[in-house]
Design brief:
Blueprint lengths: L9 E9 L8 H10 L3 E10 L10 H14 L3 E4 L5 H11 L2 E3 L1 H12 L7 H18 L9
Parallel strand pairs: 1-2, 1-3, 3-4
Helix pairs in contact: 1-4, 4-5
């Protein structure tokens, strides 16, 4: 099992523009989220699709482009600006050769790692972090428990 995103890790960001508003996420907000998590952004890869690919979310050509970028830049993690299924994360990690997280994982990582202990009362944050971990650990099997 691997740990969540750590500050200072190098990342390749991936944003797929769908013509369907159901799948679209805000690109500018995604860049700010990645910066807030402490990631060192190496490059951003964008693409356009009508619907998500069931196996990889992005198409096979885009996955190969991501794999090359990760290899060329020695990235630690690939972050998708969309919610991925556990199967898609596994398939992408196998195809790309590095850790892959989605938008939801990035947001949860920011919440778990950046809230100062005294923020709105230490007890409330402690309980909030525990609640996030209870949800994250079963849903994201490539994460391990975080000491809070």
């Amino acid at each position: 099992m691997r740990t969540p995103v750590a500050g200072g890790e190098s990342a390749v960001l991936v944003h797929i523009d769908f013509r369907n508003p159901q799948f679209n996420e805000e690109f500018d907000e995604f860049i700010q989220l990645a910066g807030s998590s402490g990631l060192s952004i190496l490059t951003t890869i964008t693409g356009t699709r009508d619907i998500p690919n069931a196996k990889y979310f992005a198409g096979t050509g885009k996955v190969e482009e991501i794999r090359r970028a990760v290899a060329d830049m020695a990235a630690d993690v690939v972050v998708f600006n969309h919610a991925l299924t556990p199967g898609q994360e596994r398939n992408l990690e196998a195809a790309i050769g590095c850790r892959v997280i989605d938008r939801v994982g990035l947001i949860l990582d920011i919440y778990c790692n950046t809230c100062p202990p005294g923020w709105y009362g230490a007890g409330r944050i402690w309980n909030g972090r525990k609640a996030v971990l209870v949800c994250v650990v079963p849903a994201k099997p490539n994460w391990k428990r975080i000491d809070v």
